[in-house]
Amino acid sequence: MNSSKLKVSLLAFSVFAALSPLNVMAAKLTVEQRLELLEAELSSYKNKVAELQQNIKDNEKKTQTATNIAPQSPVADNIENENSEKTNAVVKPEVKATQQVAVINTDGNKPKVESVTMKDISKFVKEDIGFSYEGYFRSGWGTSNHGSTQTYAAGSLGRFGNEMSGWFDLTMNQRVYNQDGKTANAVVTYDGNVGEQYNDAWFGDDKGNENILQFSDIFLTTKGFLPFAREADFWVGKHKLPEYEIQMLDWKSLTTDVAAAVGIQNWDLGVGQLDASLSRNDVDVYSRDFNNTTQMNTNSIDLRYRNIPLWQDGSLSLMGKYAFANKTDDQKKNESNDSYFEMKDTWMATGIVRQALDRDGFNEFTLQVANNSYASSFSNFSGASNSMAQGRYYYGDHSNGIAWRLISQGEMYLADRIIMANALVWSHGEDVYSYESGAHSDFNSFRAVIRPAWIWDTWNQTGVELAWFAQKNTTQQGQDLKESAYKTTLYHALKVGPSLLGSRPEIRFYGTYINILDNELSQFKFNDDSKNEFMAGVQAEVWW
């Protein structure tokens, strides 16, 4: 064996030996120690690879010199051909010291050097440490013909050109245990809004401060610990089951208000999967004079049976929620003497049919029925995420009225270069408490948003978002209150894929016109006491 082959083998063996104790010691070292050790090893590999390259060059020069002095005989040529397989057993790596290193791969008695990229090392570090980081944000600049831009009824008219906030979500996930088929991960998510009007907008408690921040997730999730559902995720902490979002309208058809909870997800049962959670979400109940509140302990049960196959590429999900109060004796007394609003239990049932379409398109059809405070959330003319209170506050004389809504959302290809997204919502309620029109209200509303776009290529789209909505609330006294408007947004987007709803990052240049037809529920007007506005701007949206 010549010297170059020996050095390649020794180098490969040293790398293999260095990596082996790293796995053994991983459980005893901190994250910082592991990274420091890996950096040291990588630096050592770079030096050895550089030395290997120099030795190979030196041997090539010696071989070339020997060839020039004494040409090989035909006998030598025959010997070289016979041993070509052995000669090729050691492959000369094309190494860039800053990008890859050499490691050994044994194949019987024939050692072989293979290249490993920095991406491979990064993957090794990620899997060894067990840490991941993901997030989302949107941000942008805009102006209008009436001074500062203002958002109006984005939950009915759509988001494009009609959202002026800088929202973000950041999630950190650290694996803390992985052994014998059992894993445990600690997860923390914080989200909020970054102000886009003033330079020095600090986070704080001031109600006028648009900079807000909260920890929406802080929980431990495990897998493999439940003997009856080893494949399921079992978690405890501040967390909730996955939300179902109407992405074009930026509200949730199905979500859970939660302060702390326990839940199980992805439990394979029969033809579908079961999710279940028990959540706490206390609310502050107002006195009838709105001068005082009382903290009422409230909990909710959330059950879901998902992904039931129906036909080709079609599935059904069935879901139910029930929220109830755990009242103290004093709170019961306050309700009985009518000094505080009575808090009532509330429920909601949901059915979703999802149909997959060509080229990763899809459409979801949702039917929801609810009573009491969940029904009240259906009556909101803009954002209509299901909730049992207005934020953290509960008030109003909620009756046993019922509300329904039908929802369609999705995206499909109308032609090879034309894609369209839709969000259509019809809502109806009878004898419900409305936060806009009061107790014992009836309401009807319809929202329609479509977004067709022309696909120039993978990175460019031009489209238009057209929206219209109308809602009528009838009060207990028989008075009709109307809210309606329409919106047109023309935009061009720089993208990284053709999907309207599923590809990000995206930078969109837009011009938007909104005209309010009726505002009897909101009394909203833009600056200058105007009922219409033109806005222009650019917005970036990204998730990773």
UniProtKB/TrEMBL annotation:
Residues 28-69 form a coiled coil. InterPro entries: G_neg_Bact_CarbUptk_Porin, Porin_LamB, Porin_LamB_sf. It is a multi-pass membrane protein. Pfam families: LamB. Keywords: Cell outer membrane, Coiled coil, Ion transport, Membrane, Porin, Signal, Transmembrane, Transmembrane beta strand, Transport. GO terms for cellular component: cell outer membrane; pore complex. PANTHER family: CRYPTIC OUTER MEMBRANE PORIN BGLH-RELATED. GO terms for molecular function: carbohydrate transmembrane transporter activity; porin activity. It is found in: Cell outer membrane. Residues 1-26 form the signal peptide. GO terms for biological process: monoatomic ion transport; polysaccharide transport. The lineage of its organism: Bacteria, Pseudomonadati, Pseudomonadota, Gammaproteobacteria, Enterobacterales. Belongs to the porin LamB (TC 1.B.3) family. CDD domains: Maltoporin-like. This is Carbohydrate porin.
